[in-house]
Amino acid sequence: MENGNNALPDSVRLPFNFDPEKLKTELKALESEYWVGHFVKHNYEGDWSVLPLTAPKGREHPILMASAIPGDHEFISTPFLEKSSYLKEVLGSFQTQLRSARLMRLGPNSEIKEHRDFDLDEKEVRIHIPILTNSKVLFFLNGKKVHMNSGECWYLKLSNPHRVLNQSEEERVHLVIDMVLNSWLWDTINKHGETNL
């Protein structure tokens, strides 16, 4: 496995397909839980909120559980994940150590402004699995649009500039997972990066 994030492609659809209807059913069961407004207020306009599925051990309040902190923390399931058998199954699909796993909701007519997540793509990477999305949700990475459908699984190099526009009247929700970049994940990303060219 090479070091450095330059060898990773910008975006790759990974070889996992999850059941959109099962994802939506479990999301619906969690809609009334306490979703935490995203901490970095200057990065968005409108509504951007988080429901943590894993959290650093010892963090019990939803606000503390919702923060994605890179590094060697022991992440454990939250009560929200314990209610969600299919989401547990999805998380069990990856042959690496998981860190933060969150449901991230971007409200109607909301925007995530262009920014970079500098702490990613060296030791940890971020995977997106869309649950609720539509054609009026626009995800830009390095100025290029990435179209992701519900149930697909995507690696996105988010240490590069990216932004999201939800120009619809519906919520956009992704399952967002941070995971350790081990040899299995490195090989999976790069093998399928070649097929996506």
Unreliable runs, pLDDT <50, ≥5 residues? none
**Overall mean pLDDT score?**
89
CATH architect. name: Sandwich
For the record, what CATH class applies?
A: Mainly Beta
Task: Explain what the structure shows.
The chain is an alpha+beta fold. It has one domain (7-195): B-lactam Antibiotic, Isopenicillin N Synthase, Chain (Jelly Rolls), CATH 2.60.120. The chain has five helices and 14 strands. The strands form three sheets. Strands 1-12-9-14-7-4-2 form a seven-stranded antiparallel sheet. Strands 3-8-13-10-11 form a five-stranded antiparallel sheet, with no helix packed on it. The protein has a two-stranded antiparallel sheet with strand order 5-6. The longest helix has 13 residues, at 183-195. It is globular.
Secondary-structure map with pairings?
Blueprint: E1 11-17, H1 20-30, E2 36-37, E3 44-45, E4 48-52, E5 54-56, H2 62-65, E6 75-77, H3 79-82, H4 85-91, E7 98-106, E8 110-115, E9 124-132, E10 137-141, E11 144-145, E12 152-156, E13 162-166, E14 172-180, H5 183-195
Antiparallel strand pairs: 1-12, 2-4, 3-8, 4-7, 5-6, 7-14, 8-13, 9-12, 9-14, 10-11, 10-13
Q: Key terms for this structure?
A:
7-stranded antiparallel sheet, 14 strands, alpha+beta, 197 residues, Jelly Rolls, globular
Summarize this entry quickly.
The chain is an alpha+beta fold.
